[in-house]
Specification:
The structure is a homodimer. In chain A, strand 8 and strand 9 form a beta hairpin. By secondary structure, chain A is of the alpha+beta class. About 7% of the residues of chain A have low confidence. Chain A is 36% helix and 20% strand. Chain A folds into two domains: 100 residues; 223 residues, Extracellular Endonuclease, subunit A (Extracellular Endonuclease, Chain A). At the A-B interface, helix 1, helix 2, helix 3, strand 8 and helix 11 of A face helix 1, helix 2, helix 3, strand 8 and helix 11 of B. Strand 8 of chain A pairs antiparallel with strand 8 of chain B, so a sheet runs across the interface. Chains A, B: Keywords: Endonuclease, Hydrolase, Nuclease. Chains A, B: It holds the Pfam family Endonuclease_NS. Chains A, B: InterPro entries: DNA/RNA_non-sp_Endonuclease_sf, Endo_G_ENPP1-like_dom, ENPP1-3/EXOG-like_nuc-like, His-Me_finger_sf, Non-specific_endonuclease.
């Protein structure tokens, strides 16, 4: 009788400790991989596959479609231990609020923290070439052309309304030390050229934070622009994006260069663009902005607009709406793929 | 007394089952991640970070430098269970061979299998844009230009010497179905142009295997080339690579397009290239081949050569050595970074 008792106790201890070991190992692995994910965009982009591979003892889970907005859902993104703790916190909070606060438990309940990268890249990566993560934007760098493929930012109304402190220590534009010296542009390249330094992520979007403001003066975020285009049309476009942010609260913007072909004779087309400086920095023929504006009600698809501005001395007074462009055309010429939201129809101009 | 005995037994069972659970969970995770790694080049490229994150119960291990040739070493690439099994197999083999075969245990001992991707990409990824894995080569696709950034192949002497079976079912060149239709070139694009379809990974390198041979006729491996350049200089360069393979046994080749700027007046340079067809497929101004030839003795650094051939009607009889080029120049204009082996010095031409 006593022997049976001992065997039973050992089996129970063994099985529970076995699962405890597996659960703890999974928790540690997932925590480590999430730490890497927050800084490495390539691992972040494969997160579903990876976390699927880390399922407890190979147990199968369903994977979602990869090209959807990223929303932290417990069953997708956490270990068994993490989920249990989260569920426990949620239940404790509900019981506590029911007995003592008598409020509806849906508001202000504990939330899974989503990372910095997940916040900016909510609508996906348009391309995967040399992605770099900064505090205020994520950037894909074109090593051949020494400027960005695209820069993605997330604008929030809170940050725009705060003006830049008058005594903030601002820095001038400078080379990006994180890029290998062979592929890096310098301020010297821009010095004796006919073009000025234009920003893809606009510094004025980050007037609330000096670090973010100064970061947008890195040369990886800067492109050679025509002076007149930069000072009038491009600036008005940036101002328009900020106004849109104040209206809708949260706006995502992808900005980047385009190299458009032009007809040279009956059947032949060619791409032609200048390069400046010792590092042969490319001067794009056009620039695009793809704007994703979120609805205040969380279920609705976001509204999207695309603008294409030629990199030339365009008329200062010209209406911004004449630069409206089909996002499919931007995708075609830039070789990028954007999110499929409610795209502004070209036949329905206001 | 009896009680102490039971407690002791339970603790021992508990601890061993705990570790067994952790070890099994780690083994399953690593096996799953390795399966993903064999098909996903981005996860493969971060493998050290990932496997480091999966260390047993967070135990710290040393990581190596990431830009070294990939060699399967047990402690780096496997779970604790996998390593134990491998060590066990090795010891069994040694004992067996010592007693029965009386041979030196170093030869033909069990080896860790390295994956297909690890084999081709032994010398690293020159760039990270849209990487695609095929049976005979790995390719980085330039969605903007509808041709490859680079194609990497691993040539082995065995495959080249076998001639293509005369009744092998060969396929003509065709669009690559794995590329989104918006960024895909078609045979129609090449049809009415002044350029012919040239191969980056040469089909004749794969005469031993019909599948690999046919794969090199996918349009993602094809670039618009000048007919005379293709039929003479490029073909001789491919033949030279095959001769080098027969001599050294194992050769890695990176091939790709270049878009070189030319001077337009005193201080200004520009890039200009034609685009053909409805899909605006770019016609590069030059092509490069970077050749990495391995020594027969495994410790030595590999020997590297770079060639740049203009995409124009170059003289048929011209010596291949006049196209020899500094690999740093190729890196500069292509925006790629190659392995640092023993590079052929330009001052020491034969």
């Amino acid at each position: 009788m006593r022997n049976h008792h001992t065997t039973f106790l050992c089996v129970v201890t063994g099985i529970s400790c076995f699962f405890l070991g597996a659960i703890l190992q999974q928790h540690v692995s997932i925590r480590n991989i999430k730490n890497i994910m927050n800084v490495d965009p390539y691992i972040f982009n494969c997160r579903r596959k990876l976390l699927f591979a880390l399922a407890l003892l190979g147990e199968k889970r369903k994977t979602g479609v990869s090209f959807t907005p990223i929303e932290p859902q417990c069953k997708d993104v956490d270990s068994v231990l993490g989920c249990t703790l989260f569920w426990f916190r949620l239940q404790c909070y509900k019981v506590f609020s029911f007995f003592f606060l008598n409020i509806k438990a849906d508001e202000e309940q504990p939330k899974l923290s989503s990372s910095h990268l997940a916040d900016i890249m909510k609508y996906g990566f348009p391309g995967l070439d040399d992605i770099r993560v900064y505090k205020s934007f994520v950037l894909s760098y074109d090593r051949r052309h020494r400027i960005a493929h695209w820069v993605c930012e997330h604008l929030r109304a809170e940050c725009i309304t705060t003006p830049l402190a008058s005594d903030a220590p601002t820095k001038p534009s400078r080379g990006d030390q994180s890029i290998p010296v062979m592929f890096r542009a310098t301020t010297q390249d821009y010095k004796y050229s006919d073009f000025v330094e234009g920003h893809l992520a606009a510094p004025n979007n980050y007037s609330c934070d000096t670090v973010q403001y100064n970061e947008s003066f890195l040369l990886s975020n800067i492109v050679p622009q025509n002076r007149i285009m930069k000072n009038y049309v491009w600036q008005r476009l940036e101002e328009y994006v900020r106004q849109l942010t104040l209206k809708s609260g949260s706006v995502y913007v992808y900005s980047g260069p385009l190299y458009m072909p032009h007809r040279i004779n009956f059947r032949n087309w060619a791409v032609r663009f200048t390069v400046i400086g010792m590092n042969t920095v490319a001067v794009p023929t056009h620039f695009f902005k793809v704007i994703i504006s979120e609805h205040k009600n969380p279920g609705a698809l976001p509204y999207m607009e695309g603008y294409v501005v030629p990199n030339a001395a365009v008329d200062k007074e010209i209406d911004l709406r004449s630069f409206l462009s089909d996002i499919r055309d931007i995708e075609h010429f830039a070789g990028l793929k954007f999110y499929e939201g409610v795209r502004r129809s070209m036949f329905n101009r206001p």
